[in-house]
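Can't paste images in this forum, so I'm doing it all in text. The chain is below; anyone willing to post the predicted structure tokens underneath?
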Amino acid sequence: MTAATPTSAAPARRARHEAELRAHGLRVTAARLAALDAVDDHQHADADTVLRTVRGALGSVSVQAVYDVLNTLTDKGIVRRIEPAGHPARYERRVGDNHHHVVCRECGAVADVDCAVGHSPCLTPADTAGFRIDTAEVTFWGLCPDCAR
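Text version of the structure:
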């Protein structure tokens, strides 16, 4: 799959990304557009994959700039960062719901899993310790179909 650049991406996708950035009070920059394209094209991408994709689209861009963009997009709720134990952080565009993830113990592949039961937070703890719970994050572990063969 070829990485889409901010200038060659489908005009509708670019317009959607620009509107999304502005709606969250962010300036539209080439690095932000390229990072959104990268995460759109590579769900559950780690920062190195996003960096390679952004560099492929823009040429020279610093590692710190890409991390800054990913942190900003995460802070604004435009992308979601997941951090499976023992694996690098990964980024996805599926936000606004309380889905979970399944991770392959062998190859590290990650896939989305819809909520186990009910509405957000999908799980009810026996004791909340006084916290008002709004999200439950569950990671299921196993073998993906390829590794299970």
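The helical segments are 11-23, 30-41, 47-58, 63-75, 145-148. The longest strand covers residues 100-104.
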